[in-house]
Each structure stands twice: as C-alpha cells, then as structure tokens.
Amino acid sequence: MSEPRKIIIDTDPGQDDAVAILLALASPELEVLGITAVAGNVPLALTEKNARKICELAGRTDVPVFAGAVRPLTRRLVTAEHVHGRTGLDGPDLPEPAMKLQDKYAVDFIVETLMGEPDGAVTLCVLGPLTNIALAMIREPAIVSRIREIVLMGGGYFEQGNVTPSAEFNIYVDPQAAEVVFKSGVPIVMMPLDVTHKALTTNARVAAIRDLGTPVGLATAQLLDFFDRYDEQKYGTDGGPLHDPCVIAYLLKPELFSGRHCNVEIETSSELTMGATVVDWWGVTDRPKNALVMRDIDADGFFTLLTERLARL
Ligand code: RIB
Ligand code: CA
C-alpha cells in the first residue's frame, strides 16, 4: 500500500459526522492528522466534546481534537438539535470523554499543519459549516495553494435545500465562509444533497451494522436509528440520508461516485435564498468550474464499504 493520505477532518458532530469519523479512523489508507470542531449541528462546546467521544469509541485517543469557531463569520449561529438531539450525539449512551481537548485553536492547527507539511500533502475533509476553513484562509492566504483538495459535504442543486427550501444546512449556517472557500481556487469535491439523498440508512443496512455485534457496530446503529427518524418522517422513506460519510468514502473508493465539474456560487445576499448553492450543471455560463459536483452513488457499494470498515474497529 502506498503512503496513507494525510487528512484533517473539520466537523460538527452530529451523528452522521460521527459515522464519517469512525470510517476514517478505521481506514489505513488515511492518516487523520487532527480533527477540528466547528459550531454547527450543536454549539462548539458540544461538537468538540462529541468529536472526542467518537475518538474514544474508536479506540483512537491518539488523534488530536481541536476547537475552532464558536459561530459563523457574520451571521448568528443556527443549530439543529431537532435533528441531532440536545447533545448532538443522541442515540447511544457514550461516556464523557477522558481524552483532553487540545489547547491550540483549530484554525491555528489547520494553518500550521498546512504550512508545515509538504506542499499538496494535506486534504481537508469538511463535514460542517465552512467557518474554520474560511478563517484559516483569511488568517494565512499562503495555505490556499498548499491544500491538496477540499472534499466537503454541503449544498444542493436538483434537491435544493433541507434547512430552507433552497439551502442545505452546512452552507446555510455560514454562507460567507462558503463563499470564501468556493472562490479560493482550491480543488473542491462537493457532496451535495443530490448525492447524499441516495445513500439511505434503510432498516436492512442499519441491521447489517448492528449485526457486527461489536461496541462500535451497536453504537453506530443507535446513532443511525436516532438520526434517521427525522428524515424518515420528513421524506417518507425507509431510512434517512447518510450525508457526511460520503466525504470519507470518496477518498477510499472514488469510483462509488459520479458527477461533473461545474461552477458553483453561493447566495449571500437574498434572505429568501441565503446559502443556496447555484450550480451551473448545464454549463450555461463561462464562470470557472471550481468544483467536482457529485450527483450519483453506488449506495450498496457505499454501505458495504462502511460496514466492512466499521467491523475493523
Ligand atoms: O445538511 C446535512 C449536513 O448538515 C450534515 O453535515 C449534517 O451533519 C449537518 O451538519
Ligand atoms: Ca456535519
């Protein structure tokens, strides 16, 4: 096997974030340099604690966890306890973490890591609002050319929005940060609702994870049982979309996904459509194609990969 791919996971756990982190920590193809928490699904004090809980669940207290932005760049924080529960990680009863939070500010960790690692060595996996990433780019513009790639869960085009009729949550929480990142010129792979809505945690798929018969398998099934109830009721489907693990699965098996390079711009003016990702899917403008926008997934292959990797923890 070639050298593991170096990644930083920026996240707002959140049950689906948690499953993405477990998938990454179970995969030897990836070297998780650090996990940076951001305010999003729940406030920062909970997202950073939840990240530590998941590292302990995975038996990976060696992975440093950092706290980042406590709120978006300019807008007030909007959270999603109605989806993720009061703790942001409702479902399993995970113990209070013993591992310590790093003292260093997450934005400083992102900047120092990108400046310290070889040029093009580090991939940013972004699972929540893009506040930390934008702050790092503003704090040290020299990191922009050093980032290998940003793979992010966010946005929606054919599926439109999930928190408003036109905006997906991660982008809606901090549209200004998303604009900084999408205009940065860094190569972006975007996992919008158009693809994550095709990765449904059906009863059979959750049962296969529970049937692993391990603490991680049970906890993951409990996370998904809690997480998918909101979307099952909203969309009337068997299971809910498993958003964030699509980011990690792309690094492990990109062939599971298909999409096209498009221009993506962020609505930051209109309150009606604030945070919408305007994807030029049909190429009707000459705006730069700044993102590889995914639209399809081999869902069975995705869940087979996820289940097989969770079995390793
Ligand atoms: O819209 C889905 C995204 O918002 C996911 O990342 C979920 O964790 C929430 O952060
Ligand atoms: Ca998330």
Describe the structure.
With 313 residues, this protein is α/β, with parallel strands linked by helices. It has a single domain, classed as Inosine-uridine Nucleoside N-ribohydrolase, Chain A, CATH 3.90.245. It is 37% helix and 17% strand. It is built from 12 helices and 10 strands. The strands form 2 sheets. Strands 3-2-1-4-5-6-10-7 form an 8-stranded mixed sheet, with helices on both faces. Strands 8-9 form a two-stranded antiparallel ribbon. It is globular, with a radius of gyration of 18 Å. The model has no long low-confidence stretch (mean pLDDT 97). Bound molecules: alpha-D-ribofuranose (RIB) and calcium ion. Alpha-D-ribofuranose binds next to helix 1 and helix 6.
Give the biggest beta sheet. Answer: 8 strands, mixed
Name the CATH class: Alpha Beta
CATH superfamily: Ribonucleoside hydrolase-like
The count of β-strands is: 10
Helix percent band: 25-40%
Task: Count helical runs.
Answer: 12
What small molecules does this complex bind? Answer: alpha-D-ribofuranose, calcium ion
Radius of gyration: 18 Å
Strand order of the largest sheet: 3-2-1-4-5-6-10-7
Q: Provide mean pLDDT, rounded.
A: 97
Beta strand %: 15-25%
Using the alpha-carbon principal axes, give the shape.
globular
Order of helices and strands: EHEHEHHEHEHHEHHHHEEEEH
How many domains, in number, for the residues? 1
Low-confidence stretches: none
